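Appendix B. One record, verbatim.
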Amino acid sequence: MTENTEIDQGILDFRLIEQAAEKLSAVVQSTPLIRSETLSERYECNVYLKREDMQQVRSYKIRGAYNKMASIERSHLEQGVVCASAGNHAQGVALSCRLMKVPGTIYMPNTTPNQKVKKVRFFGRDYVTIHLIGDNFDDAYRVAMEDATRNNRIFIHPFDDLHVIAGQGTVGLEILDAARDFHIDYAFLPVGGGGLASGVGSIFKHHSPNTRIIGLEPEGAPSMYESFRQGHLVSLDHIDPFVDGAAVKQPGKLTYEICKEVLDDIHLIPEGKVCTTILQMYNEDAIIVEPAGALSVSALDFYKKQIKGKNVVCIISGGNNDITRTEEIKEKSLIYEGLKHYFIINFPQRAGALREFLNNVLGPHDDIAFFEYVKKTSRESGPAIVGIELQNVEDYDGLINRMKEFNMDFQNLNEDSTLFELLIG
């Protein structure tokens, strides 16, 4: 390959990232790298948080969006730009449109949290038009591409573009600049389409090749993980959109090729663990993170032994969390931590059966958080769905033993995902 080749041995040329940093210097905040006392003590290492949630648009996505648009001839922008996004990229494009006075059309899934939709309108003002379409990013992406082709508009890809990747890579430049006095042993970052991982991974492989770069995906949307495992680009049939900032059915072709070279490992994080992390970061450090932004910190539990005594960086990729999701986040966290269980209980067809359950089966610290008879008639007898919240995970065995002791006919819905989704989800 020649000296000017933008991709060399699967790694993006660091000069593209340095050029992006120059373009972004007047637009993007250089976010802090902060040592977390709480996490450092918990994991017996030095944990540093790269706070991209502190950007104006509360995520790193402004970097790639603006860098891409700044690389396009002004005359080509006059027709306007189009993008598809689960929320954060849309905010970056919207702000870029307003700053550059360029019209933009933005497609977002119907599942996008309302908080993100409102922020896109706020940042774009009169320069953007928003369309909510489909159930996930890929649905919105398909319609956006049709619009761009039909109306001869430039499509601003959220991840699979050299200039977008270079813009996201400036996060890595800032990390290395802030960590000049120490070596970073591990860097944890979220992976959706792979733009952030490609950019940050490339700059680290150039300037800090001994740092292990760990990519994190949600269990419900493991598209890059499956692509790695199968050795080719994979498109998933179904994904869980809960971790919306990292939920894509297929990673980018370009990002897949780069990530193969720059990621040292890729790990799947349960959605429930993400929820626990969101709550912990808010309660312990007053940091508001969105589900994708919590992936990096969520991974630390799975790497406890490897990171002990090391210098670790977690990229907090975004903080656009909708307060209306709080109850859902609490619920998922409690279930993941083993503190909330749903049962179908067939109460005996006799008077006092429910009272016996309350008096003799429930422990002193167990709470009934949900109760509903399955039958719409004869509501005082027969099967019921009962949600029980425990104070300690160790209380579960006692609860089960008492249900058996008093001959309760029960089934734990937490252990049957199909029934759980049908009756609870």
